[in-house]
Write a structure and sequence with these properties.
Blueprint (H helix, E strand, L loop, with lengths): L2 H11 L2 E2 L1 H11 L3 H14 L1 E2 L5 H14 L4 E5 L2 E6 L2 E7 L14
Parallel strand pairs: 1-5
Antiparallel strand pairs: 2-3, 3-4, 4-5
Helix pairs in contact: 1-3, 2-3
């Protein structure tokens, strides 16, 4: 394994799943526990941050940010918003209708 790949794997493993977060990701995505852990890791690694969007998607994410708390990181990945607080995964929200095709600036 190369040094770069090892660092990426370590960064992904650095987060913790809260009990609530694990329950919500399994409930809302309909996947088993191991798959939920991998999905959260991928969301943290390759998901688009809240600040990389503009327009209606950015306004929606900003509204969530202000309504549900000023957590450290909101990541959009595969039609869901993953919420992280520090190094801990907190919860996941599905995107509202009409926002599934939005692309992050500089990523699309």
């Amino acid at each position: 394994m190369s040094d770069n790949a090892a660092l990426e794997a370590e960064a992904v493993e650095a987060f913790q799943l809260s009990n609530h977060g694990m329950k919500r990701v399994r409930q809302r995505l309909g996947i088993p526990k191991k798959a939920a852990e991998r999905e959260v890791g991928r969301a943290l690694e390759v998901g688009a941050s809240r600040t990389s969007f503009s327009g209606r998607m950015r306004r929606t994410l900003d509204a969530m940010f202000h309504k549900f708390g000023h957590y450290g990181d909101y990541r959009v990945y595969r039609g869901h918003v993953f919420v992280f607080k520090g190094d801990q995964f907190v919860t996941v929200f599905p995107l509202t209708n009409g926002l599934h095709n939005s692309k992050a600036g500089g990523r699309g």
